[in-house]
Amino acid sequence: MALPPQPWPTGDVEQLEPLVARVLAPNASPFTYTGTQTYLVGTTDLAVIDAGPADDRHLAALIRAIAGREVTAIMCTHTHRDHSPAAAPLAEATGAPVVGCAPLVIETDQPRLDAAFDRSYAPDRVLEDGEAMAGRGWTLRAVHTPGHTSNHLCFALEESGALFTGDHVMGWSTSVVVPPDGDMGDYLSSLSALQERQDRVYYPAHGGPVEKPRQLVRGMIGHRRARERQIEKLLREEARAIEALVPVMYKGVDERLWPAASMSVYAHLLDMERRGTVARLGDVWTTS
């Protein structure tokens, strides 16, 4: 998807609702859209969600946005390098603890479709599913949403019905699911769990607010299931390698995006293999 026209509000404080403000990092790319969005929750004391990349300009923008207020917690949804590296210097500047997802570093020789993992991430506290952090007038509860990464958390703001979705649900694109850590089965299960919730709005790390969250999630699940049916149909016709599936499935899509498509197809195949729908013989896949 093409980036929107500039100027973007990079470094500015945007007040989205009484308890929620947003600061956009200067790291726009084909995988981060206009950049990673850091959220400030609270009024007199704050939680900072996804402090963002290791960028001095973004750190300075966050310090300006905090404006001398107490920071109760710096909270991380997951440990890709566009999300968590600024947590440590922000903690040093504010004295706040780093809490949220568990540390995770996965190395792979496959083409990367997202940011690499942050090796420096060292939380003071890991939140389990359902655990909460609270300040004056706000409560953020962890919602475990594995799939994009196995350690991914969303954070539910109980006072307003908002859900901070990190990269699990984004406001501009579907989430990337890249094996070995990304897991399509977990991703779909997490989407189904979100669809059962009654959140009013999603605030993703990339892209605009999602005002009809359950409708979007339903569409995302439908899109993934349609891709799965497409794979199964093609493999019923003949056994194929991933390299033979992608040109058929993504006909008309810019070939520069085919490596990303290959990883998505691979994630689907691994999930289907686990459920006994497909099998592989070397590099070739077939229906079971």
From TrEMBL:
GO terms for molecular function: hydrolase activity. Keywords: Hydrolase. The keyword Hydrolase applies. It comes from Aurantiacibacter aquimixticola. PANTHER family: ENDORIBONUCLEASE LACTB2. The keyword Plastid does not apply. It comes from the Bacteria. InterPro entries: LACTB2_WH, Metallo-B-lactamas, RibonucZ/Hydroxyglut_hydro, Sec-metab_biosynth-thioest, WH-like_DNA-bd_sf. CDD domains: metallo-hydrolase-like_MBL-fold (cd16278). This is MBL fold metallo-hydrolase. Residues 35-206 form the Metallo-beta-lactamase domain.
